[in-house]
Design the sequence.
């Protein structure tokens, strides 16, 4: 700053020996310089942003205004330094102009955060920090940072010792972090969920605690599930971030495989049973033809031959209804075809002791 003042004085003093005229000349010179720079900037940028969006244009216009005002205020600070006055008056004047300049930069940074957020949100694909659920948090955090940095700069301009304030803020922040550790944990887990994307809005997920439903919202504090009973469950992100999650809508597509276990009696014609099950699956309107339904012979059970019908459906939400319809049709078809569905039987044989035989009593301790 002192070098600029000395350079301005050396350049203006031959034309205006009066210090007040030097101050006015410096202010006018910087205003003229700002005007010329602003016009050149608008012409150059106007040619380069022909295909840009509205957010980009607004950001560039804001940058142009910021540059113009900053150069003018810089000229004002040099003019204040050229005016003959007491050091205290000069210091107050420079501090006022510096505060005005800092306020202009704070306002610019505030608007720039909003414009950049809008530009990132308009991109496809969106970035992790520009998701609808995280954009407000990121934008507000950046704006809070702008305010803190701006306040620190203004205090430095007025030569205010901020060491005590920073120490007090650190103590308050530590106490706040202990008091709100659960809330902060949920917020951090929410950011991790949105960034890692184990599930998205509209997916069907199953937690290790048994909750199953459609994800209707992913907030910074909690995730909301809509169960098949039309009951919305809100789960804190701190809990869901530690849980085992089964995403039934994950993978390359949203199809879901339904399993229908069935047992038939020993001695049944397996080929006829498999053909019957495949016809049932292919005859259902909601069962996908690709991949094709299939039947697998799983094991020799204690009282039955255990098979499993595997077929794909379009959405996980249809699982309950389609499984019900397939089970009903299997029972009807087996009844028509004479295929027996066995059930476990236990035979108990009671032998009568011979007369006079000593009965043995076994006691357990």
Sequence:
């Amino acid at each position: 700053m002192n070098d600029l003042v000395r350079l301005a004085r050396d350049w203006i003093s031959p034309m205006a020996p009066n210090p007040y005229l030097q101050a006015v000349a410096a202010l006018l010179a910087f205003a003229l310089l700002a005007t010329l720079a602003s016009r050149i900037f608008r012409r150059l940028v106007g040619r380069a942003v022909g295909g840009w969006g509205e957010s980009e244009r607004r950001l560039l216009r804001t940058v142009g205004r910021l540059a113009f005002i900053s150069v003018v205020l810089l000229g004002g600070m040099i003019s204040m330094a050229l005016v003959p006055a007491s050091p205290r008056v000069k210091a107050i004047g420079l501090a006022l102009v510096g505060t005005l300049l800092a306020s202009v930069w704070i306002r610019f940074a505030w608007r720039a955060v909003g414009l950049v957020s809008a530009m990132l949100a308009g991109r496809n694909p969106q970035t992790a920090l520009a998701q609808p659920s995280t954009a407000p948090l990121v934008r507000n955090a950046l704006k809070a940072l702008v305010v803190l940095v701006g306040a620190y700069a203004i205090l430095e301009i007025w030569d205010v010792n901020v060491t005590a304030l920073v120490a007090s803020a650190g103590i308050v922040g530590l106490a706040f972090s202990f008091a709100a550790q659960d809330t902060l944990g949920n917020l951090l887990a929410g950011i991790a969920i949105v960034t890692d994307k184990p599930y998205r809005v509209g997916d069907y997920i199953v937690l290790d605690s048994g909750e199953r439903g459609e994800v209707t919202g992913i907030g910074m504090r909690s995730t909301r599930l809509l169960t098949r009973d039309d009951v919305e469950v809100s789960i804190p992100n701190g809990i869901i971030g530690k849980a085992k999650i089964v995403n039934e809508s994950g993978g390359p597509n949203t199809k879901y495989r339904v399993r229908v276990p069935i047992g038939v009696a020993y001695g049944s014609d397996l080929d006829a049973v498999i053909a019957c099950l495949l016809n049932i699956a292919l005859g259902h309107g909601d069962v996908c033809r690709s991949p094709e339904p299939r039947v697998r012979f799983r094991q020799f059970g204690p009282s039955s031959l255990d098979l499993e019908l595997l077929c794909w459906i379009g959405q996980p939400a249809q699982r309950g209804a389609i499984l019900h319809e397939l089970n009903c049709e299997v029972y009807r078809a087996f009844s028509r075809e004479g295929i027996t569905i066995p059930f476990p039987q236990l035979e108990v044989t009671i032998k009568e002791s011979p007369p006079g035989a000593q009965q043995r009593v076994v006691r357990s301790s």
Q: What stands out?
A: Strands lie at 204-207, 212-218, 222-226, 232-236, 245-247, 256-264, 294-300, 305-313. The mean pLDDT is 80. The two ends are 97 Å apart (CA to CA). DSSP finds ten helices and eight strands in the chain.
